[in-house]
Structures are given as structure tokens and as C-alpha cells.
UniProtKB/TrEMBL annotation:
Residues 107-352 form the Sialate O-acetylesterase domain. Signal peptide: none annotated. SUPFAM superfamilies: SGNH hydrolase (SSF52266). This is 9-O-acetylesterase. GO terms for molecular function: sialate O-acetylesterase activity. It comes from Coprobacter secundus subsp. similis. InterPro entries: Ig-like_fold (IPR013783), SASA (IPR005181), SGNH_hydro_sf (IPR036514), SIAE (IPR039329).
Amino acid sequence: MKYIYFITLLSVCLCFGLNGMAEIKMPTIFGDNMVLQQRSHAAIWGWASPQKRVVVKTSWNGKSYTVLADENGKWKLKVQTPDAGGPYTIKISDGKEKVLNNVLIGEVWLCSGQSNMEMPMRGFSLQPVRNSQDAIVRAKNKNIRVFTVQRNYDLSPLDDCTGIWEEASPESIARTSAVAYYFGRLLNQVEDVPVGLLITTWGGSSIKAWMSKENLAGFDIYPAKSKAEIKKPVHSPTVLYNAMLHPLIGYGIRGTIWYQGETDVAIPNLYIDLFKSMVREWRMQWGVGEFPFYYCQIAPYKHSKNQAFFREAQGKCMSIVPNTGMVVTMDADSPDCIHPDKKQEVGERLAYWALAETYGIKGFKYKSPTVKGMKVEGNVAIISFNDAPNGLIAKNGEVKGVYIAGKNKKWYKANVSFFENTMRVSAHDVLEPVAVRYAFDEYAPGEIFSTQGLPVSSFRTDDWTE
């Protein structure tokens, strides 16, 4: 009798176990309310029983797609997405059906970086986001969806993360990245399509934390051997890549926006190579070509050294890495807080880049003016600028942050005037100008703008180490 009872119990357990194995499991990135990239072959993946046949059916075209799970139960396939629209459903089955509801087709952007990308609409403690209250109240929009990856770190690449897709509402947007939201809101308004924002950030993180172990090995940078060695995950090589980026790799995106660098101001020259290598790796792993990568230059801040050299390095990245664009934040007006409250300006300037370069909208300027060259006429240095068709203006009517030097490398405060797309610089004590610097200091506020209100970055025409 005991034998019969044991066999019966074992059969029940096996039955439940097999049924449990047969149930489709998917990463959290695939769920109700998600947004898939329009007009693409969007990847969908998950787990089932080993060697099990998995069928995915999409309601927008009534098509079924079939794949066989591998020996570990992993499966992956791609579905063809139409023009923006929805809501739709996706049904996934290996005998037991799972349904994803309220799925939209639109534009999907990855949003990553450190605290200035992480800073939510409701702000940090004692650090608000300017004018966010009204934006939060008006945030309800079924065509903007956000997925925020919760903080985590690991020594090995993970296949899943913690997060949930949410429709834009006052409650969800209050805790959403302000830069990402303002970026997505403007895309939604102008393009009139659903927008999905994949947000993965951690304040204080170094670029090294967002790069794979294999990538960093080329720089002789290696991850910790155990979690016990990690004092600060944000400074630890590769651990955020493993836990907060790897689970997203392959999800269909249009491009990336990035706001990071404050942690790495001490390594401007190395940063150029790290940035180039990181962007190349992300693009290679996503496998959708050289997707656009728009990023923010760090803002002036009184309590950090080496900033001007770092901003210069960030500016060089734009000319070295293809299909990138940089937003200048010299007008952040936040000398004593590393988290400027002007997040709307930053998010919308990133959107300007995307609208112009990615979506092809004409008729507006989106690039901050950059130095084209310098020539000397007598005791006057004349700096010419790109992307200043209507000339340059001084924010407060006077420019105090421009300095000029001769061969002796002594810097003198300069007199400045503007004519068309040039800036004329001179000083009484410099008869033969050799070099000019603007806002090239530990802290200097932005003073020079295009007529469209886009600030000029700090710059120098020399390469002196002093």
C-alpha cells in the first residue's frame, strides 16, 4: 500500500514538474504595455522546455512564427513589425499559451548613463527638476511607455532584469528619468507615434561599469574576481553591463541617448577610447548597424577638477565615432549642484538631434556652434564657427570668460566682439596672439550662444598642458 502511494505521489510530482517546465517564461522586457520598434524585424526570446516547439502569433498581421527551443530551453525568433500603431496582442505558446496585451508599435530608445540621466522628474532630495510639477500633472499619455531597469550588479552576464513596462501617467512619470521623458515626449509630439523608453542608469557610474569584460580586457582593465572585492558597484568594471544592459541586448531599438561622464573627469584621454569602444560594442551586439548615439556633455560645476579637458574630450568623441551627436550644457546654471535642474532643455536638445539626424526633419538648428578655425590679423585673433549661420550672441551682453595669450603663454582677459559667424578677440597686453580659450577653467558659466539659443562649448585653440 505504501508502495502504491509513493508511486502515485511521484507521478503527480512529475506531472506538475513537466507542466511547469512547459510553461513559457520570458524576460521582463517582454510584457504587457511594451513598445516594439516599428518597421523592423524585432527579436523576441525566452525559455521553454528543451527541444519544445514554440509558436509566436502577432495580431497586427495574423502571422505565426515558429522556433524550436534548444537543449537548454532557450529560444529566439524575429517578427516583422508594421508602421506605428496598436494596441496589439502577441501570443506565445509551446502548448500552454502566454499573451502579451496592449502592445504598441513605435519608436524605441535606450536611455543610459549616471545620475543626470537617472534623475527622476520628481527630483532628488533637495534637488528639484525645474518646472517638473506641471509636466508630471499633464503626463498621462497612452502612447508613451517607459521601462526602468532596477539597480543590480553582477560578475557574470545576466539574462533577465527587474522592471515593468508602464504607460505614462503622473504616477509613473514622477519616478521616470527626466531627461529620458522630455526626450521621448518631444519625439511623440513631433513624430505622432508611440515612443518606448528603455531606461538603465545608476548614479555615479563609470563608463567602465557599462562595458563587457572582453571589451575592457583590451585596455588592461579587469573585473573583480568576487563580489566581496566590490566596494562600489558603480566604479567596478563590467558589473552594470552584466546586470543592467546585457538583459536588454537585442531588443529592437532606434537608437541610444547617453548622459555620463562626471565620474570619469580624471581620464579625458582614456575616455575617448573607452567611449569609442563602448559604442562600437553596443552596436555590434545589437546587430542593427550603426544606430544613432546621442549624448550629453557634462555641465560646469565648481567642485570638480579637470572639467574643461574632459568636455574637450567629449567633443572629440563626436568627430571620432560615427553617427553620434553631443548636447552642450554650458548654460546649466548649477555651479554648486552636480545635478542641474534644467532637464527639459537637455532632453529636448537630445530630441533635436534625433528629429534632425534620425527622422530627417528640416527647418531648424540643432547643433551647438563649434570652432572652425582661427586666424590672426594684427593684434586680433578671429575665431570662426560652424553652425552659426545667424551669428553668435552674448547671453548677458558681455563675455567675461574669454582669454588670449601670445608666445609667452601668459593669459589675459580679452575684449570680445561678434561679427556674423566669427568672434574677434584681443587684449592690450597681447600684441601677437597665439591662442584663445573660452570658459576653459575649473568652473566657468556659458556666455556665448547661437541665435537659436544653443550654447557654445568651452574650447581652446592651443594644445598646451598648462
